[in-house]
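User: Teach me something about this protein's shape.
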Amino acid sequence: MTKRKFRFEDLEIWKTAIEVGDHLFNISDALEGKKLFRFAEQLRGCGMSISNNIAEGSGSFSDKEFILFLNYARRSCFESANILIILLRRNLIDESIKNQLFEELEVLSRKITNFQKTLRG
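Assistant: First, the predicted structure itself:
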């Protein structure tokens, strides 16, 4: 029997988004431990939004529609970065953690943009 897969499972940007999402979830878990539920919920939500939009968009019937979902995913990278800045300013994360995640988000954002360009042809 052949193992079934969804289209997004083979996409490098989705795999990267899942990894970044895991790191954001780790921070969210730590925030919940400090009873900072709103921060945790917001960071977890935008972290999931990146991979969710890539996955959802991969089910589109047109590249134009897929590009739209990729744009949502890219924007969630920026939202995540903004939350990390707020967390740093509130001394809830270390600058080294913020810098590492900024690098990951920036790379992912570029990968999403480049993938959008390939879909545009």
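Now, about its shape. The mean pLDDT is 97. Helices lie at 12-33, 37-58, 63-89, 95-120. If you'd like, I can walk through any region in more detail.
User: That's plenty for now, thanks!
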